[in-house]
């Protein structure tokens, strides 16, 4: 009997336990079911990012297919804060001063070093270098601009918005020496390759009636914008400049007081005396210089050579000479070889402005801001922002990208402008760009020789060197360079006096403080 009762008891316990366990199991299985009824695969809310620039009005328009693609890809919502070109800096400074810094914003960055370093000092902008290893496209882009990081404690605090694509492109040059091709052919001359060739061709353009009108009314070469700055390719052919510094015997010295600059001024003074150099070169505006080249008053000028400038020149030549092909009327020189064989073309930095991230964002916002920048720098992101969406904005025919809409139609989608968070893409030319091969060849002929300014962004403090002193010396240089080209009867003697005066006007102090800071920064 006892054994039977014990068995019945054990069976009852097992039954009870099974019931309890079954009930627990049912409760557990119901919980997800209830949750799934409340939130069936609910997607995370888009993260809103405020972005500031003068360029992005309408970038978040509901009908923007580009913006919609970014939203889908990154789960973000962009809130553009815009301004006019004339007051964007002022508006940005007011927002920052009032504690309303945007999540991401475009600024001059290191181009306004005092302000930029103050933002860093106050911890207002994110040290991108601390996160770059998690974002390969950001990291690759920053690697091209290590010279900036050296001026801010070895770290990047903003992303340089690059001009031209490609790694290891520190410096670019968007100018060239343009020459009247029809004049060359009429006089049986070749495109000049050296500084001596340049002189010979310019002299022939002055003396040998290249326009065939029987009058001596042409000049070989002209310049503009005060007459000094646009002369830099000629100074470069003598391996010097009026603005940069060179390191000699372990010491940085301004090139403007070098023997090479003296040689350049002797050369230009000779061209002026022989009426090879347009006597109005120092008075010409850029427009006047351009007009003289088109109308056949001069045969050589230095000018911009991007797609817009090429089109403008071609159009004006076509209007002036309706029966001629513009391509038959001009060509380019590229980078001249100097007397020592050196080829140099001073370039500008391969970026303009920088994009910073607010350092005080939540982790979620910070991550999305970094993801946005990294995506826009990626091959996929660049393809989207430059070409658009396949089947909508373009189609592929083999390796070629063929637009499906006009540039005017495409420009209505302001979402495309968001690429300027990371890049200007000044070297991008659609496959259907007229004269694309020529435009690329012109750019390459100077761009391949572009050299960066070795002391760019040198951080000499205002306490050590009054910025107004540098400005005064620059004005003195421009004035005296013109004087020596136009009026000097003995450039060598006048240059020695110029050098002595430059030193006494504060040049000695500038050299001293420049070398001190260059040593600190390891330059």
Question: TL;DR of this structure?
Answer:
This protein has 18 helices and 17 strands. With 523 residues, the protein is of the alpha/beta class.
Unreliable spans are: 1-40
- The helix tally amounts to 18
Largest sheet: 5 strands, mixed
Which range best describes the helical content: under 10%, 10-25%, 25-40%, 40-55%, 55-70% or over 70%? 40-55%
Total beta strands: 17
CA-atom Rg in angstroms? 32 Å
Instruction: Note the overall shape.
Output: globular
Global mean pLDDT: 90
Give the strand content. 5-15%
State the separation between the terminal residues, measured CA to CA: 102 Å
Record the strand order, biggest sheet: 2-1-3-14-4
Structural class based on helices, strands and sheet pairing: alpha/beta
Characteristic key phrases:
about 525 residues; alpha/beta; five-stranded mixed beta sheet; four-stranded mixed beta sheet; about 15% strand
Please provide a written account of the structure.
The protein has 523 residues and is α/β, with parallel strands linked by helices. The protein has helices at 2-38, 65-74, 88-97, 113-121, 136-142, 146-149, 181-187, 195-207, 232-237, 259-273, 286-295, 307-320, 363-377, 379-387, 407-410, 436-447, 467-486, 491-520; strands at residues 47-52, 76-81, 104-107, 159-162, 171-172, 175-180, 219-221, 245-248, 251-254, 298-304, 330-332, 345-346, 348-349, 351-357, 394-397, 400-403, 450-451. The strands form six sheets. Strands 2-1-3-14-4 form a five-stranded mixed sheet. The chain has a four-stranded mixed sheet with strand order 7-10-6-11. A hairpin with a 2-residue loop joins β8 (245-248) and β9. α5 packs across α13, α10 packs across α17 and α17 (467-486) packs antiparallel against α18 (491-520). Residues 1-40 have low confidence and may be disordered.
């Amino acid at each position: 009997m006892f054994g039977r009762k014990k068995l019945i008891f054990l069976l009852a316990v097992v039954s009870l336990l099974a019931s309890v366990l079954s009930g627990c199991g049912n409760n557990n299985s119901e919980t997800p079911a209830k949750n799934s009824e409340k939130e069936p695969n609910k997607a995370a809310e888009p993260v809103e990012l405020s972005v500031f620039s003068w360029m992005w009005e309408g970038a978040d328009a509901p009908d923007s297919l580009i913006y919609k693609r970014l939203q889908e890809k990154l789960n973000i919502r962009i809130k553009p804060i815009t301004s006019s070109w004339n007051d964007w800096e002022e508006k940005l400074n007011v927002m920052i001063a009032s504690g309303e810094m945007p999540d991401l914003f475009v600024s001059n960055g290191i181009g306004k070093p005092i302000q930029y370093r103050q933002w860093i000092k106050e911890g207002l902008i994110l040290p991108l270098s601390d996160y770059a290893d998690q974002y390969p496209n950001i990291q690759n882009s920053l690697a091209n601009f290590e010279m900036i990081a050296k001026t801010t404690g070895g770290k990047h605090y903003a992303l340089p918005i690059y001009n031209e694509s490609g790694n290891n492109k520190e410096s670019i040059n968007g100018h060239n020496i343009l020459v009247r091709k029809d004049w060359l052919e009429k006089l049986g001359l070749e495109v000049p390759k050296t500084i001596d060739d340049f002189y010979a061709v310019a002299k022939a353009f002055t003396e040998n009636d290249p326009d065939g009108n029987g009058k001596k009314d042409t000049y070989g070469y002209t310049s503009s914008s005060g007459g000094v700055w646009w002369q830099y390719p000629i100074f470069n052919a003598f391996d010097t400049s009026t603005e940069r510094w060179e390191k000699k015997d372990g010491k940085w010295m301004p090139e403007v007081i070098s023997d090479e600059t003296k040689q350049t001024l002797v050369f230009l003074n000779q061209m002026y005396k022989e009426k090879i150099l347009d006597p109005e070169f120092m008075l010409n505006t850029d427009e006047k210089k351009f007009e003289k080249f088109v109308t056949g008053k001069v045969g050589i000028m230095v000018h911009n050579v991007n797609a817009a400038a090429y089109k403008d020149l071609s159009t004006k030549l076509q209007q002036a000479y309706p029966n001629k092909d513009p391509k038959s009327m001009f060509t380019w020189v590229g980078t001249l070889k100097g007397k020592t064989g050196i080829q140099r073309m001073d370039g500008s930095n391969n970026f303009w402005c920088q994009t910073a991230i607010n350092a005080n964002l939540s982790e979620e916002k910070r991550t999305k801001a970094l993801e946005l920048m990294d995506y826009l720098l990626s091959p996929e992101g660049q393809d989207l922002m430059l070409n658009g969406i396949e089947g909508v904005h373009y189609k592929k025919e083999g390796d070629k990208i063929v637009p499906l809409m006009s540039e005017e139609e495409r420009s209505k989608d302001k979402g495309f402008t968001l690429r300027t968070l990371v890049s200007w893409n000044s070297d991008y030319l659609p496959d259907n760009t007229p004269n694309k091969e020529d435009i690329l060849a012109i750019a390459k002929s100077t761009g391949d020789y572009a050299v960066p300014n070795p002391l760019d962004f040198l951080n000499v403090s205002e306490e050590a060197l009054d910025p107004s002193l540098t400005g005064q010396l620059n004005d003195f240089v421009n004035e005296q360079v013109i004087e020596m080209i136009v009026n000097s009867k003995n450039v060598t003697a006048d240059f020695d006096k110029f050098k002595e005066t430059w030193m006494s006007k504060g040049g000695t102090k500038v050299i001293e403080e420049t070398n001190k800071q260059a040593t600190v920064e390891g330059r």
